[in-house]
């Protein structure tokens, strides 16, 4: 076991714990059994203390599948593709090791004529961590990525193996790492499909507020980006799929025509790392994310914050977003607004309700960002806004806990699987109980 200064993806915080990197499931089980406290760490794309451990941090990166195409172009010091996914042709389900990144899984599926129904903005994040924190993409009909889950295999506190499915699955979809060390999961796939995206902008802010329902239904996935520097959304990204591709593209969105050259979500940034636009169709895995799998994602040096607001409050929450222009001046790189469909996961912010996500990419200035987080929470709390499990927030934990009607059921499941709380940390205790 080695103690290392392990930073998160953007370098905004250091993750607490002593790192263990087993090269087999047997070694992982032994590490879990001998430790008093264990948390998993993956692509480290969280911005809070969700993965912090009082003792042991376990990374299963040596068991991750890496697609040869990405391994050859990434230039990273990566282990070989030790555990290849397994696709069941009869059911369409794929079994994948937990530390595998979405980009690698997507290419594996593409080679076999399959795809996942949706993807997050970044393809560089690990599958298990994304599911555990209710990470999502966009689209009025698209739920969180964990909705694709059909089974979870994990190592329990004693080092044994457990398979969670059926009645336990909705508790395990969004687990915050509190149920055990997840080693693999089975996901539902669909036939491979193509997506094309066209970017419009700038669109007046009022036009998005008043026409949000219509705008958010222009495609399979729609994202609206604003820097809050002017009273506009600098860009609206419309991603169409399937039969939508047969219909003519809208000539304009709220009076604003399509852009005639590629655009980055953050105005002024080179769009080279953004996925192809201008209505050029391509595989879903290479269009639904905003960023290319073979390039550095997003802006890099940043802190992220996000609130999920029940869809019936969309207009009020959009106006609240506009009201943050002054508090966030000089701090916000870009804010993204998108739709997320309801799901059944007990700890999902979208549990049994459609939501609108308000995501902020902020400059990497921890003190200044912390000072404005209360203003962000005050903007969305009146509309039952729930903070994303992997982002920074100044929300009142008691308020947040009260918004999850199946929270007690999750705690009962966690107590049954891990009675001594080996996998629970301060984050879980603070936000769930």
Automatic annotation (TrEMBL):
Keywords: Oxidoreductase. It holds the Pfam family ALO. Residues 12-192 form the FAD-binding PCMH-type domain. InterPro entries: ALO_C, FAD-bd_PCMH, FAD-bd_PCMH-like_sf, FAD-bd_PCMH_sub1, FAD-bd_PCMH_sub2, FAD_lactone_oxidase-like, Oxid_FAD_bind_N, Vanillyl_alc_oxidase_C-sub2. PROSITE patterns: FAD_PCMH. It comes from the Bacteria. PANTHER family: D-ARABINONO-1,4-LACTONE OXIDASE, L-GULONOLACTONE OXIDASE. This is D-arabinono-1,4-lactone oxidase.
């Amino acid at each position: 076991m080695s103690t290392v200064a392990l930073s998160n993806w953007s370098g905004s915080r250091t993750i607490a714990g002593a790192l263990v990197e087993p090269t087999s499931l047997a070694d992982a089980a032994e590490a879990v059994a001998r430790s008093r406290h264990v948390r998993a760490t993956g692509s480290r794309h969280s911005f809070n203390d969700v993965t912090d451990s009082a003792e042991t941090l376990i990374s299963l990166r040596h068991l991750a599948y890496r697609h040869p195409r990405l391994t050859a172009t990434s230039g990273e010091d990566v282990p070989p593709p030790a555990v290849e996914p397994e696709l069941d042709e009869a059911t369409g389900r794929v079994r994948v090791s937990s530390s595998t990144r979405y980009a690698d899984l997507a290419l594996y599926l593409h080679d076999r004529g399959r795809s996942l129904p949706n993807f997050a903005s970044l393809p560089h994040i690990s599958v298990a961590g994304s599911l555990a924190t209710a990470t999502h993409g966009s689209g009025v009909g698209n739920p969180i990525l964990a909705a694709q889950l059909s089974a979870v295999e994990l190592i329990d506190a004693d080092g044994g193996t457990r398979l969670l499915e059926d009645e336990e699955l909705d508790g395990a979809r969004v687990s915050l790492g509190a149920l055990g060390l997840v080693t693999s999961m089975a996901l539902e796939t669909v036939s491979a499909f193509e997506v094309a995206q066209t970017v419009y902008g700038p669109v007046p802010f009022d036009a998005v507020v008043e026409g949000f329902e219509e705008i958010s239904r222009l495609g399979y996935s729609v994202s609206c980006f604003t820097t809050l520097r002017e009273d506009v959304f600098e860009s609206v990204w419309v991603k169409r799929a399937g039969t939508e591709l047969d219909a003519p593209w809208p000539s304009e969105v709220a009076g604003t025509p399509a852009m005639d050259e590629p655009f980055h979500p953050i105005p002024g940034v080179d769009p080279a790392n953004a996925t192809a636009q201008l209505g050029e169709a391509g595989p879903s895995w290479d269009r639904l994310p905003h960023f290319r799998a073979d390039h550095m994602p997003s802006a890099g040096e940043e802190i992220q914050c996000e609130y999920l607001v029940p869809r019936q409050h969309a207009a009020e929450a959009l106006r609240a977003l506009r009201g943050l222009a002054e508090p966030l001046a000089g701090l916000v790189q870009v804010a993204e607004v998108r739709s997320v469909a309801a799901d059944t996961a007990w700890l999902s912010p979208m549990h049994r309700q459609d939501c609108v996500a308000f995501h902020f990419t902020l400059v990497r200035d921890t003190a200044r960002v912390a000072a404005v987080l209360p203003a962000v929470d005050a903007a969305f709390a009146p509309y039952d806004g729930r903070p994303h499990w992997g982002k920074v927030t100044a929300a009142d934990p008691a308020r947040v806990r009260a918004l999850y009607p199946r929270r007690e059921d999750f705690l009962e499941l966690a107590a049954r699987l891990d009675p001594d709380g080996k996998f629970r940390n301060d984050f879980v205790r603070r936000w769930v109980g």
